[in-house]
Amino acid sequence: MRRFIVDGPRQLSEAAEAARDLLEQWSGPPPERVVLAGMGGSALSGGIVEALSLLRGTPPRGSFHVAREYDLRVPVGPKTLVIAISYSGDTEETLSAYRQAVTAGAQVIAVASGGRLLDAAAEDRDQGVRSVTIPPQAPGFQPRFSLYYTSAFVLSILRGLGLLEHPFEPAALRLQLEGLMDSSEAVGETLGASLGGGIPVVYSSPCFETGLARIWKIKFQENA
User: Fold this and answer.
1) How far, in Å, CA of 159 to CA of 64, rounded?
2) Angle at which helices 92-103 and 115-123 pack, to 10 degrees?
3) Under DSSP, is residue 131 helix (H, G, I), strand (E, B) or coil?
4) What is the pLDDT of residues 12-26, one digit of tens each?
5) Contacts (Cβ under 8 Å, ≥6 apart) of 36
6) Comparing C-alpha atoms, which of 122, 126, 117, 41 is closest to residue 83?
7) Is 115 exposed, middle or buried (0-12, 13-18, 19+ CB in 10 A)?
8) What digits encode the pLDDT tens for the residues 119-171?
9) Is the Cα dihedral 180, 182, 187, 192 positive or negative?
10) What are residue 10's DSSP bridge partners?
11) Distances in whole angstroms, Cα of residue 65 to Cα of each of 123, 185, 193
12) How far, in Å, are 152, 204, 217, 218 from residue 155 at the CA level?
């Protein structure tokens, strides 16, 4: 697990490169609305973008949504970009949302490491569906550890389409995080010792709930 955490920032560069390759093939005007469809760890990047939307107004509130179930729950069409993310590529809810987006004629990007989602994207290529394959990882890798990749990919796409005013520089962020790794590990050990045998409770304002607070909760439940 430590290896995945320490190597995590490298995913930022991989995701930025994948987004750059996709954007080079982009044609037409940018979408008016972006919907991220995903479940669990694959949807965590949506919480990061939601936090930016609430704090900075970028992208404008109302233009970005996260669908964490079978249905997209917002109207979609040719002026909507749906980014369907499933690390395994076999998440039932994400596959359902993906099919709804394609049927509605939305612009669609499928992101997965394999599975039925990438198979469907290949079959729907003639309908304009684009796909990105998450690079293979070592055995034991969990979808939640792909947060670096999925967040950097989504933010790079939004930035490239002119929908994210907040600066996002994956290369600089990677260097910053790698430089903080040793000191962060020391802080983590101190925090772990202070928690002892207690039950941690994560409390946050609404703008941090779906992003940072949920990530902390998952780290306590799944990693600790």
Assistant:
1) 13
2) 10
3) strand
4) 999 999 999 999 989
5) 43, 45, 46, 49, 64, 65, 66, 67, 82, 83, 85, 154
6) 117
7) middle
8) 999 999 999 999 999 998 888 888 889 999 999 999 999 999 988 877 789 99
9) positive
10) none
11) 26, 33, 38
12) 5, 23, 23, 22
Helix, strand, or coil here: 82? strand
Backbone angles phi, psi at 164, to 5 degrees: -125, 105
pLDDT on residue 144 = 85
Question: Measured between alpha carbons, how far apart are the two ends of the chain, in Å?
Answer: 10
- The one-letter code for the residue type at 58 is T
How far apart are the C-alpha atoms of 220 and 224, rounded to whole Å? 5
- Residue 84's SS3 state is strand
In this structure, what DSSP letter does residue 112 have?
E
42 contacts 69 by C-beta, under 8 angstroms: no
Which residue bears the tokens 């994948």?
A: 18
